[in-house]
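Ticket 4471: requesting a sanity check on a complex prediction with oxa(dethia)-CoA. Repro inputs:
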Amino acid sequence: MYARIAGTGSYLPSHVVTNADLERLVDTSDEWIRTRTGIRERRKAAEGETTGDLAFHAATAALQDAGVAPGEIDLIVLGTTTPDLVFPSTACLLQHRLGANGCAAFDVNAACSGFVYALGVADSFIRAGSARRALVVGSETLTRMVDWGDRSTCVLFGDGAGAVVLEAGDEPGILTTKLHADGGYKNLLYNPVGVSVGFRPGAENAGVSIRMSGNEVFKVAVRTLDRIVGETLEAAGMHESQVDWLIPHQANLRIIEATARRLGLPMERVIVTVDRHGNTSSGSVPLALDEAVRSGRVQRGQTLLLEAFGGGFTWASALIRY
Ligand code: UT7
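Returned structure tokens:
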């Protein structure tokens, strides 16, 4: 039994924040942001627009693309670090809004690797025969926990969501997934407040924001992604040259270029959205996938390599026959 991608969808909030907008907020420049990260603009959710809202639009588009009704879904796995509520999970809120009540639904928090983790989990459910149709979502409103006075982080992040519908079948779709974590790196990329640490009920949680040692994260990310793409291809018994498209996590163009070099892939075979989306954490890989499918670049039968790296640290990959 295999899981194959039956449909994709994505959603971006309409409000665009350009580098010029950020020049007015902090001591930065369009030139610095473009050359160090590749980012030109990112989206910001409107007041009152939530991770669940973004997820709903992306999921609706994916279901439509797959020709699957919400009632046919028997599993929802949603990757997010910015859930609407502490509980219920955003997956439960999404399930009810879609009208898929009754199926299993839960969130996965693996920071920027959230979607690829969720995909790995759903793939395992389908392979085990525990689900036949799964909705897998990555959705984030990271701009809600960005310190807009910290130039080292506020220029990087954006909001967005992507989703896929997986269906069980005999033909290989998802060939292999690899999920990893090393909690020893917690202090390089984190948010210091949670429900059981530093949270003050009824108080303004001002100052709760992303803390990142960017340069150190950068170096570990490049090394780790280099390793995981090798490990993934080896597990599937495939060679770099058999990959049609690299669909990487969109944190920094320089990290993406390093992974592409490792694979010997020209940038024409790498899906890049970081210039327009910034880093949307769990949203980034499914957003890039959906954009690539809808633009006609990714075609049925092609081989896709998805990878992500984020806080935890977590890192994950998926090799897919689309
Ligand atoms: O998605 C989860 C995983 N996250 C990542 O993969 C992010 C990984 N890290 C990165 O993408 C990069 O490290 C950054 C884009 C965050 C930073 O780029 P960098 O080339 O590593 O720069 P740096 O942190 O070494 O900083 C270089 C200089 C510093 O100034 P000094 O100390 O050399 O005088 C920073 O203060 O750039 C300064 N700087 C800025 N200058 C203008 C930092 N942020 C900015 C800014 N505008 N926004």
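Notes from triage: The chain has ten helices and 13 strands. Leaving this open until the requester confirms.
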